[in-house]
Amino acid sequence: MARSALIDVSKQGLLETLKWLWRELLEKGLVDALLVPMELPSGHNVVQTLVTNADKLEAANPLAPVLPVSSARIVSAMTRIASSQKKIGVVLRPCELRAVVELVKLNQISLPGLVLIGIDCFGTYSVSQYSKLAEENHSPTQRALALVKDKKEDSLLREACQVCEYPFPMNADLTIGLIGLDLDKGILLEAATEEGERILQALGLKKGNGSAKRQTAINRLVSERVRKRDELFEQTSREVSGLENLLSTFACCINCHNCRDVCPLCYCRECLFDSPTFEWEADKYLTWASRKSALRMPTDTLLFQLTRLNHMAISCVGCGLCQEACPNEIPVFRLFHLVGHRVQEIFDYVPGQSLEEELPLVTFKEAELQEVGYK
Amino acid sequence: MNDEFEPVIVGYFCNWCTSTAADLAGTTRMQYPPNIRPIRTMCSGSVDPVYILRALLSGADAVIVGGCPPGDCHYISGNYKTRRRFAVLKTILSTLGLEADRVWLRWISAAEGAKFAKTMNEITTEMKKKGPNPLKKQWPI
Q1: What would the mean pLDDT of A326-355 be, rounded to a whole number?
Q2: Distance (Å, whole) CA A138 – CA A135
Q3: Is A293 in CB contact (< 8 Å) with chain B?
Q4: C-beta atoms of B57 and A303 within 8 A
Q5: Are residues A118 and A157 in the same domain?
Q6: Of A228, A263, A287, which residue is a domain's last?
Q7: Do both A102 and A159 map to the same domain?
């Protein structure tokens, strides 16, 4: 049974209370280092920062509505070669955490030594939007939280966030619950593992119950998001499906592969598309050109997108960073989210939901998909 | 001159079953259409979707992957994984409104020369009925 505690935020305020929590984690030696989003001195961006000294936590702000890079990539880069004997606490948004779980299953992250701290997410803005607000002296964090408190929709949220049906962390050692709670009074701290329990105990917080209230609010939010998601799916199907539509969707693709570079699930050290497999002599190009009388250059634009779908859509967590990274505003997220949902449905698979459940493409059942291979 | 449309069909056949079945069909002098361009792979499980997609986008009218029947994979479970990957590939194609029925997967064991010839006849006839792959004419892909 998960143990939970209520943290009083009425005296210090939400952000300061969270800073107290990070400080406690470091000062009590519950973690040796903390990976936490920190505001850059310019105020124009918030980036994941590895902090070893509690004095440096003044700028920590995991509530800032911006997601420049998926932390799953960062955690993978940190632990792929070898994990540390020391404990690293990592503060993650739900979509980052889901990607972390997928990467653990793909052997790209080693969990030992990591303390996963998940935090409820109210959605994020694009980096440029965030920085613009900051420049105009509007605190993006205050703006976002004020809208949450007033129960108003935030029109600036990224598309992926507007249809996100997993705004709550799954598989965290420690969950910071915000949804459905009075953010001027108290927030929830929930331990789901032994590690989480240990930390909760050491913090000496009073037992609290806000879990039921939070769960009700989450359920309501999720059903609303699912409705929006289905609307988006329908619209995307109309806009993208069919050869003509698909070609006009990717007409602006310049083969920069930014979408792949920011994708938390595209983990290959050397992508097939960067490998010698795609290096050819001039005569090859001439042969292809003469086959269709003309050849789009650079070649294999659509092939790249379709292949990427085949390789990662099964684990797509729908973070939408691909769409953010596209220099030409191709609706990559819409397309990948739709296709991802359809292929995940085949195996009833939810990326990031379970560490134990095997990745669909590395396992099989004998008596399944009987029609494939016969019809 | 006969103007009938002759489809180009790329076949990826596993070394242990379907390629051997192709040999058997040949040595027992069974007729099958020359529209098939067979490529031998070690296992149907080693055929990454990128190979199937590239053939289709380059203008092949169909792609057929042949593997060992379920339970008979030389590598124990390669064909079961092919089957899952195929379900994914076909779902992706149909979600995007591309023709998923130009991609076939069939289990043909080493002893089934006749089945090999029959299947190759079947896919050729189907593709003749269906007509050329619309991607054949598309240069901007």
Answers
A1: 98
A2: 7
A3: yes
A4: yes
A5: yes
A6: A228
A7: yes
Residue A370 lies in a domain: no
Which 3 state secondary structure label does DSSP give A227? helix
Give the DSSP H or E segment for A72. helix A71-79
CA of B137, closest CA in chain A: separation in Å?
6
Which domain covers residue A110, as residue numbers? Answer: 3-228
For B9-134, give the CATH class.
alpha beta
Do residue A271 and residue A329 come from a single domain? yes
Whole-number Cα distances in Å, B29 to A66, B92, B114: 67, 39, 10
pTM equals: 0.95
- Does ipTM exceed 0.90? yes
Domain total for chain A?
2
Selection from A41, A89, A39 nearest residue A64 by Cα: A39
The 10s digit of each residue's pLDDT in A25-41 is: 999 999 999 999 999 99
The answer to whether residue A271 sits within a structural domain is: yes
Query: Does the distance separating the beta carbons of A240 and B92 come in below 8 Å?
Result: no
Q: Do B50 and A310 touch (CB under 8 A)?
A: yes
Domain boundary residue, one of A228, A260, A279:
A228
Report the mean per-residue pLDDT for chain A: 95
Interface test with B, best of A334, A364, A371 (most B CBs within 10 A): A364
Query: Which pair of tokens denotes residue A25?
Result: 């984690």
Do the domain assignments include residue A50? yes
> How many Cβ atoms from other residues are within 10 Å of residue A368's Cβ?
14
Domain residue limits, chain B = 9-134
Digit-coded pLDDT (tens) for A161-201: 999 999 999 999 999 999 999 999 999 999 999 999 999 99
User: What contacts A309, CB < 8 A, 6 or more positions away?
Assistant: A336, A339, B92
pLDDT of residue A1: 46
The mean per-residue pLDDT over the stretch A18-30 comes to: 97
A169 and A270 housed in the same domain: no
In three-state secondary structure terms, A116 is strand
Is A246 a member of any domain? yes
